[in-house]
């Protein structure tokens, strides 16, 4: 008799978990399935978009790592409803025109969501802080160059 068995089918993330927010934003998008040609899709576009956004928020950009995340991470499993897309499916989705349209709609919905919940408003403020991009993670910045470019 083991009382420590986790029932994955009924697992729900906490209300303030980021997968809940990603799920709310993607579900707000009015998505019509307009796929006439070819065979029917095995995976829902919304679940692939949710998985991609969740992986990007975790700093995971490789299709193989996203596929691994979908299998091993419990919140990612909840987003995809226990389906595990292969890395090729994820890669095909990310380069498709549909993904581009979905992401632009998702950004608009995110802005509306943030304004509705008073996280942002119409006022913007720039403080001039210099933050290195992730691409420059391992590059060394010389003090002399910073002073020269500041002028």
The total of helices stands at 7
Major sheet size, sense and barrel closure: none
The overall pLDDT, averaged over residues, is 80
- Terminal CA distance reads 71 Å
Proportion of strand residues: under 5%
How many beta strands in the DSSP annotation? 0
How are helices and strands ordered from N to C?
HHHHHHH
Relative helix content: 40-55%
Tell me the structural class: mainly alpha
Cα gyration radius (Å): 20 Å
The low-confidence parts are none
Shape: globular
Pfam families: DUF772
InterPro entries: Transposase_InsH_N (IPR008490)
Domain Transposase InsH N-terminal: 7-94
Organism: Apilactobacillus micheneri
Can you offer a commentary on this structure?
The structure is a single chain. By secondary structure, this protein is an all-alpha fold. The chain has a domain of 100 residues. Helices cover 51% and strands 0% of the residues. The protein is built from seven helices and no strands. The termini are far apart.
Key structural traits:
51% helix; 151 residues; mainly alpha; 7 helices; globular; Transposase
Brief summary:
Helices cover 51% and strands 0% of the residues. The protein is an all-alpha fold.
Helices and strands in order, then pairings?
Blueprint: H1 18-28, H2 45-57, H3 63-72, H4 74-80, H5 87-94, H6 97-116, H7 143-150
Organism: Apilactobacillus micheneri
Protein name: Transposase
Pfam families: DUF772
């Amino acid at each position: 008799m083991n009382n420590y068995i986790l029932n994955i089918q009924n697992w729900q993330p906490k209300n303030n978990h980021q997968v809940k927010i990603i799920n709310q934003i993607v579900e707000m998008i009015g998505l019509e399935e307009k796929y006439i040609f070819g065979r029917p899709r095995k995976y829902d576009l919304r679940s692939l978009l949710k998985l991609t956004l969740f992986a990007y928020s975790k700093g995971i950009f490789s299709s193989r790592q996203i596929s691994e995340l979908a299998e091993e991470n419990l919140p990612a499993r909840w987003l995809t409803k226990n389906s595990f897309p292969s890395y090729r499916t994820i890669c095909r989705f990310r380069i498709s025109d549909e993904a581009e349209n979905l992401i632009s709609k998702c950004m608009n919905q995110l802005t509306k969501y943030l304004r509705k919940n008073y996280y942002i408003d119409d006022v913007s403020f720039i403080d001039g802080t210099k933050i290195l991009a992730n691409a420059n993670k391992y590059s060394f910045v010389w003090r002399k160059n910073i002073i020269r470019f500041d002028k």
